[in-house]
Amino acid sequence: MPFRLLISLGLLCALLPLHHGAPGPDGSAPDPAHYRERVKAMFYHAYDSYLENAFPFDELRPLTCDGHDTWGSFSLTLIDALDTLLILGNVSEFQRVVEVLQDNVDFDIDVNASVFETNIRVVGGLLSAHLLSKKAGVEVEAGWPCSGPLLRMAEEAARKLLPVGNHIDVLTGKWVAQDAGIGAGVDSYFEYLVKGAILLQDKKLMAMFLEYNKAIRNYTRFDDWYLWVQMYKGTVSMPVFQSLEAYWPGLQSLIGDIDNAMRTFLNYYTVWKQFGGLPEFYNIPQGYTVEKREGYPLRPELIESAMYLYRATGDPTLLELGRDAVESIEKISKVECGFATIKDLRDHKLDNRMESFFLAETVKYLYLLFDPTNFIHNNGSTFDTVITPYGECILGAGGYIFNTEAHPIDPAALHCCQRLKEEQWEVEDLMREFYSLKRNRSKFQKKTMSSGPWEPPTRPGILLSPENHDQARERKRAKQKVPLLSCPSQPFTSKLALLGQVFLDSS
């Protein structure tokens, strides 16, 4: 049977839902105010359960009402949930948690930690909370947003992380896994190309993504599904949909590719309606789950795409997904102590885990889907003026960029603090010129002692005019520029001694 016909049969099966959320009272789109309150109640049921039963551990185990450490013993769920508190409007709890984190979280420990997860959850959560502190009524120090205790905590955590490879042999540079797609292992890379281009106003990053996007459309897309292919041949290796791939329609909306985004979103939505959630792997030709990948750990990606697309289109179908998500999660996953991972969507068996991203992402995107006037959606009509030692800054005007853990970053803060960086560069350039001048004088003095009276140097330019100084500075930067993905030529042992480590070598 032709492959495309099998896909169509799979879609037909997917259109027979096992679970539906309730429509509005008159059959219209879901009432945003009603579901906004439902989502808020979900958050506090999970959050309070974590505080009462699991803190200071990383995560809640909802079936046994206790906690355990997962990604490094950093009270991860509390850090991950912090900016969600403000988005839900809870200023007082945000302020309390900031004090708790400053008093209790210590990164100077020897633990096994995931570099990727620690980066997106801990570093991202602290950076976002730092930038939102003033809005939450936290008393900030002089120099904010370019300095502050949460920013220093984020920097400390980041310095503990060492570069690692994912599916690449870091010694030979060869690919270990040769399947290409848009899901696990590469999803955040594509996401950050687009978001990095927007956040940093970097045209090269967007050009890179658009080039990848051509190959993705040409080799992995079939009937608005995205499959996995052999990276050198382009032949289909896995005709599956991974739940992690559901971020893709949201990413497409950021580059304005709305039509393709909606078609793909509707494909993924049919899978949700079939099971009341997205299984980790879904066999597209067969229209069913993949063995040992039947679970749904309350991931946010499809809800994330719905939020982005609703902002772009206002299509009420996207609110229906939000309604279905609320109804499904409450019906299938809610237990006395929070919300439990769904181990198997076929029979709705549960697993004893509530990942921190449920509060950081899933609930946040749901709430923002139903709250069109939230400050995160600000169109620039309101803003805050902040006076810092480096000048006047405009913050909170909107355009927030979410990291891959849904922690919002205000792009205006980068431009505000960039002034400080430029001042530092100017001081560093002056110091280099000063020491260069001292070295040159020392050389000339030695020459005078050995070969007669001193003569002025024949090479002009030791003392530069302002114009020549700027030209020399630009030449120096261009000469010192290194590829973005290169590593400094520093011994590995020196890096460990300088930065510390979060991995233990058991050998």
UniProtKB/TrEMBL annotation:
Region (Disordered): 446-481
Any GO BP: endoplasmic reticulum mannose trimming
Residues binding Ca(2+), per UniProt: T404
Subcellular location: Endoplasmic reticulum
Cellular component aspect of the GO annotation: endoplasmic reticulum quality control compartment; membrane
UniProt-listed SUPFAM superfamilies: Seven-hairpin glycosidases
Keywords associated with the record: Calcium, Endoplasmic reticulum, Glycoprotein, Glycosidase, Hydrolase, Metal-binding, Signal, Unfolded protein response
Chief site of localization: endoplasmic reticulum
The protein's name: alpha-1,2-Mannosidase
Biological classification of the source: Eukaryota, Metazoa, Chordata, Craniata, Vertebrata
